[in-house]
Amino acid sequence: MSGQTALVTGATAGIGRAVAVQLAREGAEVIVHGRDAARGAKVVAEIQANGGTARFVEADLTDAHDIERLAQEAGKVDVLINNAGIYKFLPTSEMTEELFDLHLNLNTKAPYTLVRALAPGMVERGHGAIVNLSTLAAAVVTKGTGMYSSSKAALEQLTAVWAAEFAKAGVRVNAVAPGPTRTPGTDAMDAATLKTVAETTAMGRIAEPEEVAEAVVFLASPRASYITGVVLEVTGGRLSIG
Ligand SMILES: NC(=O)c1ccc[n+]([C@@H]2O[C@H](COP(=O)([O-])OP(=O)(O)OC[C@H]3O[C@@H](n4cnc5c(N)ncnc54)[C@H](OP(=O)(O)O)[C@@H]3O)[C@@H](O)[C@H]2O)c1
Fold it and tell me: β-strands 5-8, 29-34: how paired?
């Protein structure tokens, strides 16, 4: 992927960090996005130590002006990975208005705003790849995930619409739907919950972020040149009923 610039949102941790490292290994110049400059610098240093090229851009994706600034500072982007996201599992009665807005703003509106800002350049240049991070919870009813799964289901529908909208211009748009994955985000959950979640997969374990990143990088790469509009599940398999 040399000669290509890739913007990875939420690349300071977890799945985004693993995607950034793997894209750099494929030769892409990576823009590591996040809010935490110290963690961003660590990821950039790791990529550079491996011989890759990367720089950090800070932006709060809940702020529309910050998103526009990020798009400006990113410049020419060939590969956009909409990874930054939030997941709070709560019963509906406990979901606050603030958290409702946070899920929609970060998981749905920020990817929309970035695609609106960056896809026209891809169309103009006649090539580009976008990968959106969804979740298995968008397709499978999962306790407490009303707002999270809805915000990602919307992103999956946008993926399908954008794939159709941009296909003839040479821009592919796909999504990856991970199952439970070991990241700083899930590390914050208690061990019993993680064990319960792991047991909902056919493989009986949670994923490492690098396993999810492999699928993201494949869809972003020219190796997936005839694939657009798909949601690729990376879930360790579904359990059978009975
Ligand atoms: N982990 C899982 O089990 C799992 C399963 C299915 C789907 N997913 C999806 O995969 C994606 C990554 O998940 P993860 O577990 O790797 O996440 P994570 O460990 O919680 O890391 C979240 C990343 O998003 C960034 N971020 C959070 N809020 C932000 C904001 N307001 N503005 C800008 N950046 C922000 C964080 O950057 P800073 O800290 O630097 O701000 C960080 O880099 C998410 O979209 C998630 O929904 C995860």
Answer: parallel
- Whether 68 and 44 have beta carbons less than 8 Å apart is answered as no
The CA distance from 2 to 59, in Å, is 26
pLDDT band at 189 (very low <50, low <70, confident <90, very high): confident
User: Which domains does the chain carry?
Assistant: 5-234 (3.40.50.720)
Whether residue 148 lies in the annotated active site: yes
**How many other CB atoms sit within 10 Å of the CB of residue 189?**
15
pLDDT value, residue 190: 83
Nearest CA to ligand 1 atom 23: 10
Q: Which of 87, 112, 148, 226 is catalytic?
A: 148
Q: How far is the CA of 106 from the centre of ligand 1 (A)?
A: 10
